[in-house]
Amino acid sequence: MHCPCGRGAYAHCCGPLHAGAPAPDAEALMRSRYSAYALGLADYLLATWHPSTRPDGLDLHSDPPLRWLGLEVRRHVPAGGTAVVEFVARHRQGGGRAGRLHETSRFVHERQQWFYVDGDMTPD
Fold first, then answer.
1. What is the dihedral of CA 69, 42, 77, 7, to 10 degrees?
2. In this structure, is residue 19 part of a structural domain?
3. Nearest 5°: phi and psi at 92?
4. CATH for 110
């Protein structure tokens, strides 16, 4: 199976992270989170969200369903125990027009793993 994040085979890309392997850097974590959204893995998303900003739950189901179409990482800026990743994720809901989510996300490295903290959305 091709990995939703666009970096090759799922078994060698985001699959190991979804199975519990730690992300080597914030970009890898962000890619694995995109793939988790595409695959409906809410538990993984919550587990990789920093406890200080994590919601109580996530409902990834919508009607009509949201389909993730592709990911472009624009920059990854590591800074010691923190990092910033800017990305654009394309999606489509039902038969509607494709949309874009453009976000600059903040990550922190704690307890030997990376966590998503929050992000700023850029309007299209």
1. -40
2. yes
3. -145, 140
4. 3.10.450.50
Number of domains in the chain: 1
Residue 38 host element (H or E): helix 26-39
Give the pLDDT of residue 124: 67
Dihedral Cα 25, 30, 36, 37, nearest 10 deg: 170
Sequence letter at residue 32: S
Residue 36 domain flag: yes
DSSP state of 11: G
Q: How many residues does the chain have?
A: 124
Instruction: Kindly state whether residue 5 falls inside one of the protein's structural domains.
Output: no
Residue 7 Cα distances to 83, 87, 109, angstroms = 20, 14, 23
pLDDT in tens, 38-76: 999 999 999 999 999 999 999 998 888 899 999 999 999
pLDDT at 123: 81
Q: Give residue 45's domain range.
A: 10-55+64-121
The pTM assigned to this predicted structure is 0.95
- Report the helix count and the strand count for the chain, using DSSP H and E: 3, 4
